[in-house]
Amino acid sequence: MPQIIAYYRVSASQQGKSGLGIEAQKAAIATFASGNDMQIGGEFVEIETGKGSDALDRRPELAAALAAARKAKCPVVVAKLDRLSRDVHFISGLMSHRVPFVVAELGADADPFMLHPYAALAEKERSLIASRTKAALTAAKARGVKLGNPNLGLARTKAVEATKAEADRNAENILPVVRQIQAAGAKTLREIAEALNARGVATPRGGQWYASSVKNLLARS
User: Fold this and answer.
1) CATH number of the domain at 3-124, out of 3.40.50.1390, 3.40.50.620, 3.40.50.720, 3.40.50.970?
2) Looking at the chain, which terminus has fewer C-beta neighbours within 10 angstroms, N or C?
3) Between 199 and 69, the higher pLDDT residue
4) Confidence of residue 42 (pLDDT cuts 50, 70, 90)
5) DSSP letter string over the chain?
């Protein structure tokens, strides 16, 4: 049975101490391994920010995972690409180690060389989020909103609700297409994803569909 090395990362020390996020990553990689007849030969857990092109210097567990994978001649698997980094230069540096990386969310068939453009998109997304946040804060300040006010918790709650509402609206638009695809004979999440991509239906973020993103969509139905 082919072997893989699992790498998990959380973005803050508090999250690492509480275990939040780690279990979800472990579940994703375990599902990936069982679905592809692979065995997890080693697990490495990191607590680190992951931001910056020199992040590998602050990631002893990732370095250990690379060494283990090199010795076992197998890939390192992460649940999502951002568990490695959203930094393009960092991803490029990892590729130079000649250890294959597999992103469970993208599937076993995803070309490892596609990690670089995916990282570029993730880095762009991070930049856009930062720009939008800065612009929103500037606009709020111009309207006389007192930043850092005691209503911050309420504002965050409303923001989460707005994001969920938008996701629900996107699901309502795409679900009818999914139902048609299912009626045409598609049974598995991967088959549905392939059919959506073949029809030119993009995800709400403008990307391609994968089994995991279809699963998230159906969870809203």
Assistant:
1) 3.40.50.1390
2) N
3) 69
4) very high
5) --EEEEEEEESSHHHHHHTTTHHHHHHHHHHHHHHTT-EEEEEEEEE----STTGGGG-HHHHHHHHHHHHHT--EEESSGGGT-S-HHHHHHHHTTT--EEETTT-TTS-GGGHHHHHHHHHHHHHHHHHHHHHHHHHHHHTT--TT-TTHHHHHHHHHHHHHHHHHHHHHHHHHHHHHHHHTT--SHHHHHHHHHHTTPPPTTS----HHHHHHHHHT-
